[in-house]
Amino acid sequence: MNSRPVPVEFRSPDDTVLDGLALSTDHTIRYPASWLPDLAAGQSLRIGGVSYRVRDVRSVGDGSERRALLTRT
User: Fold this and answer.
1) 51 close to 37: Cβ distance less than 8 angstroms
2) Structure pTM?
3) How confident is the model at residue 23 (pLDDT cuts 50, 70, 90)?
4) Cα 42 to the chain's mean position, in Å?
5) What is the CA radius of gyration of the chain?
6) First vs last C-alpha separation in the chain
7) Which of 57, 55, 53, 70 is nearest to 15 (CA)?
8) What is the DSSP letter of 42?
9) Cβ distance 3 to 36 under 8 Å?
C-alpha cells in the first residue's frame, strides 16, 4: 500500500459492539470502498504506529462500504 493517510473506523478486541452487549474479538477497519479500492488480504498497513496484516476484506450492505479483518504483526 502507499503511505497516504486514510481515515477509517478502527475496532480492537477491547471495543464494545452491539450497544455495549458484547466485546469485539477481532481487529477490524470499516471504510468507504472508494477510499481503499485495492486493499486485499495479505497486504500490510499501519494504524496508530502499529503494523497489521489484512486477513480478509468484505463488502458491507450495497458494496459502497468495506470491512477488513486484521492481524497485528
Assistant:
1) no
2) 0.78
3) low
4) 13
5) 12
6) 16
7) 70
8) T
9) no
Query: pLDDT tier at 12 (50, 70, 90 boundaries)?
Result: confident
Closest CA to 53 of 37, 42, 38: 42
Cell numbers linked to 72? 497485528
Q: What's residue 69's pLDDT?
A: 95
Taken in order 41, 42, 45, 49, the sign of the CA dihedral is positive
Which residue has cell 481515515?
7
Residue 28 corresponds to which cell in the numbers above?
A: 477490524
- Annotated domain spans of the chain: 9-72
Which three cell numbers, joined as nine digits, stand for 23? 466485546
Q: What is the mean pLDDT of the chain?
A: 87
